[in-house]
Amino acid sequence: MDRKILASAAFxxxxxVILGAFGAHKLKELLSPEMLTSFETGVRYQxxxxxxxxxxxxxxxxxxxxxxxxxxxxxxxxxxxxxxxxLLSTSAISGINFKPIxxxxxIGGLLLIVGWFWLFVDFMRKxx
Length: 128
Description:
By secondary structure, the chain is mostly helical. It contains 5 helices and no strands. The chain has one domain (2-125). The longest helix has 29 residues, at 2-30.
């Protein structure tokens, strides 16, 4: 499981750097400042959670059950939260109306929060 978590962390981290560079260099010319800020929020949260997955994959003090739960919650959270923001913020240049999927963004955010909370509970259950 640790290998899968670490590989996912590396993928999400690398793709966040690529998307951030794309946003800074190409989308800057094409998007309104508000949409660019929204796109950057998706990138930032993706990178934060890539670091979280890296930690979860490397730290031995997390139960196997918690690692698996946090992995899936964070992975789905990144996909729902960041991907929906990418699509919504670039809809003006893609010509596709992604507003109907806008409800997915807060679900992704909730999944990320639950992942952090699950990790917190796992830490609190550990005996000193």
